[in-house]
Amino acid sequence: MNTRIYVPVDSTALSLGADKVAQAIAAEAAKRGIAIELVRNGSRGAFFLEPLVEVQTPAGRVAYGPVQPKDVAALFDAGLVTGGSHALSLGLTDEIGYLKNQERLTSARIGLTDPLSLDDYIDHGGFVGLDNALAMSGADVVKEVTESGLRGRGGAAFPTGIKWNTVLGAVADRKYVVCNADEGDSGTFSDRMIMEGDPYCLIEGMTIAGIAVGATQGYIYLRSEYPHAFATLKEAIHRARAAGWLGDNVRNSGKAFELEVRLGAGAYICGEETSLLESLEGKRGIVRFKPPLPALEGLFGKPTVINNVISLASVPTILAQGGAFYRDFGMGRSRGTLPFQLAGNIKRGGLVEKAFGVTMNELIHDFGGGTLSGRPVRAVQVGGPLGAYVPASQFDLPLDYEEYAKHGAMIGHGGIVVFDDTVDMAHMARYAMEFCAIESCGKCTPCRIGSTRGVEVIDRIVANEQRGRNIALLQSLCDTMLNGSLCALGGMAPYPVLSALNHFPEDFGVDKTEAA
Amino acid sequence: MSSHHPAPGVDGRQLQSLVDRHADLPGALLPMLHAIQDEFGHVPEQAVPVIARGLNLSRAEVHGVITFYHHFRSHAPGRHVVQVCRAEACQAVGAVALEAHAKKCLGIDFHETTADGAVTLEAVYCLGNCAVGPSLRVDDDIVGRVTPERFDAIVAELRAEVSA
Questions:
Q1: Which of residues 387-416 of A touch B (CB under 8 A)?
Q2: What pLDDT score does A173 carry?
């Protein structure tokens, strides 16, 4: 058998030159007359090691990284095909601490397999959950998901089972499953990694959702900023359909489920579920009033399950191993695991899936190794552009939905953006308002106008124009946006602003002791 | 970085066929606009009434959708589109300086095209490449860890392709 050599096709690996490395390996092997099987896998998620090249050996997969094309000849000289030693050697992939110390449930397969190979997927435990679900009643599937304690991973953390149960109970001639793949939060890429690295997992999760609630059509609403994920999903859906995992008779069960991927068009607001539904219907992505809930009147007015990628991709594990298995991870009311994403100014950035309860210190220091710049960490933004800035004094809090909420912060989609001590927090606060102004759908006044006024007020504070009065005005404006906005965009944009002001008043020209 | 945008001439029959091909999809407008922009590099003004007729919408409704979404453009871009990520994770590793460098090096602001027609510069809010920023999207390729020097090299490469 030819030696298998793995080079990832993940966007981040590609952004660091993985294609050129793959070409160099193929060319070098051909030149030396060595027969290899080059597999383009997903990324293991240790992005600081990308492009990460792995070689299959009798002892297991051996890793090298980060590899550049110029390293390839020397790697072959050192015996790459037999896992030989080289300056870039990382040893057995499974023994790399960053990967070994994770608790991977949802992202377990990413990086191990060729993302488009159905055989690989099945060999690594794929479709067991769907097969189990097909043998169960819809109500029992929903019960299993409810028992798992899974909550919406897009950020709102609403219990998935309860949402599904509402759709199950709704009577309609047609129901839909919609996957929210509009992963717009800066610092997040776990959805992208699933879609590029393990697309069948998402397809399986959506099919289970459809079978559970009686929906026959699914849509993945994918952001247009993810061209690689789009290509992978389209091909994966095509192959799954050809193999009978999708279609009008899924696995000869007599049950139908069809799936289509649709591209968004660069609007952050379309990550808000009702705005997303409007966009899928071919309209401007303007937020809807709730009620009616999408579970009752969603896409085209029909009952709709709308969940984030990670929520849906967690379902196959739950159906394969049982709700209780999943529920046994985590703490409090935050059950299971979350694929956290270490981003920004971080030495070892990437995907770290851990059970809830892990602390920020563990994530950014033990896993992340501190900042890329080597300077002290000053602040961390958790949960995307609408998430609060958390100061170092709170890095020992357990990452738990309720614990974070108690401190005016949120976990959101699990994105963690690290800043070193050169960050200007007044600039970041201004940016939060500016971003809200750019992305506001315009339906409600606090968001549409408040965000623009927010930029102006922060500019006045920084320029020391009636600073005290303008700080009071900013606080009042934030209060109006928090309480008066229609959706989370205007309703949460004040979190980064107020947390920056409260924790780092000196950046706004306010004496720390005076502010306290 | 090979995906050139097609030249801006708009073939009416081709436009009509794209509209016809998508008109029966549920929620057809976005897939239709994507197909048109992929073909022509932008959504030309003359497409609006054709789309409106095809979907039984008013021209105002079609115009409203095109202008709502940052991705759709009404004018032909340069031969390459370069997007600079402005989001927080990239800011944490120097995106503000990269943005300034990009504008200065190309001599244009966001949403503008260089005089030689080679590059249109756009802002983007996250490419999901947040562990290895600052990031760019060059046509359909994502590029990580972009320094000002790397930016210059990428632009030089794009310009060389154009003159080749």
A1: 415
A2: 97
The answer to whether B112 and B121 have CB atoms below 8 angstroms apart is yes
Which residue among A420, A439, A473 closes a domain?
A420
Helix (H) or strand (E) holding A161: helix A160-169
In a domain, A233, yes or no: yes
A106 assigned to some structural domain: no
CA-nearest residue to B129 within chain A is A12
A130 and A228 co-located in one domain: yes
Residues A267 and A315 placed together within one structural domain of the fold: yes
The CATH number of whichever domain residue A390 belongs to comes to 3.10.20.600
| Token pair listed for B147 | 């320094």
Q: Which residue intervals of chain B bear CATH 3.40.30.10? A: 80-163
**Does the beta carbon of B31 lie under 8 angstroms from any beta carbon of chain A?**
yes
pLDDT of res. B8: 53
Whether omega for the bond prior to residue A51 falls within 30 degrees of 0, making it cis, is yes
pLDDT for res A511: 81
Strand duo A60-64 + A89-92: pairing: antiparallel
What the block records as the tokens of A29 is 């092997």
- CB atoms A415 and B130 under 8 Å: yes
- pLDDT of residue A506 exceeding 90, the answer is yes
CB contacts of B131 in chain A (<8 Å) are 12, 47-48, 189, 341-343, 346, 349-350
Mean pLDDT over residues A188-208, rounded?
98
Please check whether residue B77 touches A, CB under 8 A.
Answer: no
Q: How many domains is chain A partitioned into structurally?
A: 4
Across the interface, whether the CB atoms of A423 and B92 are under 8 A apart is answered: yes
Second CATH level (architecture) for the domain B80-163: 3-Layer(aba) Sandwich (3.40)
Decide if B70 and A265 are in contact by the 8 Å CB cutoff.
yes
Task: With CB atoms and an 8 Å threshold, state whether A50 touches B132.
Answer: yes
Beta strands in B43-87 (DSSP E): 80-85
Residue among A336, A312, A334, A313 nearest A326 (CA): A336
Residue A111 lies in a domain: no
Interchain CB distance below 8 Å, A279 and B70:
no
Range of the domain at A76: 3-100
Yes or no, beta carbons of B125 and A381 under 8 Å apart: no
The interface predicted TM-score (ipTM) is 0.96
Q: What is the DSSP letter of A91?
A: E
For residue A272, which of A294, A300, A296 has the smallest C-alpha distance?
A294
Which tens digit of pLDDT belongs to each residue from B7-57? 457 899 999 999 999 999 999 999 999 999 999 999 999 999 999 999 999
A-B Cβ pairs (cutoff 8 Å, strict): 151
